[in-house]
Amino acid sequence: MIPMGGSPSPADPRPRDVSVLVVDDSEPVRDTIRTIVEMLPGCRVVGEAADGPTAVAQARRLSPDVVLMDINLPGCDGLAAAEQILAGTPTRVIVISVENGREYFRRALQAGACNFLVKPFTPESLGAAIRGAMGEVAPHSRQLLVVGAQGGVGASSLAVHVAARLHAAALAAWGETPAALELLVGEGQGVPVVPYREDVPAESGGLVVVDAGRMPPERLPRDATRLVVLEPSVASLHGAARYGPPFVLNRAGCPGGLSREDVTRALGSAPAAVLPEDAAVREAANLGRLAELARGPWHAAVTGLLAELGLLETEAPSPAARPLLRVKGWRLVAGGDRS
């Protein structure tokens, strides 16, 4: 059951269903989406609309939890309708479209949408999008938090790459919208991007990598593994001292920057990994081209870090296969010792 905000009435302790408004100018498509939504546990369709003005009116009248909004609508397009809805109702909008382009994704994000799905989509992808819109992270017992010591700088690139490298159950966003982080992830990576909630139950499940950005030290979960990303600057050193080890020195070797030895002397702990300066890495991450990160010195350094932390286990490949990577059971304590 998808959790909802607020508390159920004393007479009915069950959480209420997530209410969904379906907006598409094609009746057969609306019927298909309705069928999918009503197959999802804890979801129900409360209304439909075939054009932009009707969608706005229905959203204001019904106050659905989630609006599934097609882009190409008569009257006014779906993005304009989404802006009007979000300006007046506390709902979430997931944009749906047959167009599969990053520019559409950016326009949807600018309109305030929390996610973007390309038609046709599977029930699994729609269910994950709705859960993400409602702020649900799949129950799990393992979190890897990637924190940026200098105001969050460098955390997203490393978190995204680590999540893809470990085939994480999810990549959680803290301090920025999941849709913004989705731009960084790129398409086809197979790692759902969801909001981060501090009240995630500690139950068995998959690893969740958290782009913790500039999460304050006092808000870091005590039972979560963390990596503190330093930029090669004095300001980053001051920030890292507030978090403590393990540290990852990013952009090592840039002119005038800090070295491994500088970090060790200043913080009393050697970096767990040193990631080389590579302008191509920053460009690839910012454009969501993660395939370009899967090679070169930066990738090798990240892989070495994950192996050192006990997160990767390799098996000898068969002649027709590459090495298999599996997430191991692990826990990292300050100083780099594993248990």
Description of the molecule:
The chain has 339 residues and is an alpha/beta fold. It folds into 2 domains: 18-133, Rossmann fold; 140-327, Rossmann fold (3-Layer(aba) Sandwich). Helix content is 34%, strand content 23%. The chain is built from 11 helices and 14 strands. Strands 8-7-9-6-10-11-12 form a 7-stranded parallel β-sheet, sandwiched between helices. Strands 2-1-3-4-5 form a 5-stranded parallel β-sheet, sandwiched between helices. α2 (52-62) runs parallel beside α3 (78-88). The protein is elongated and about 65 Å long. The relative contact order is 0.10. The model is unreliable at 1-14, 199-204 and 314-339 (pLDDT under 50).
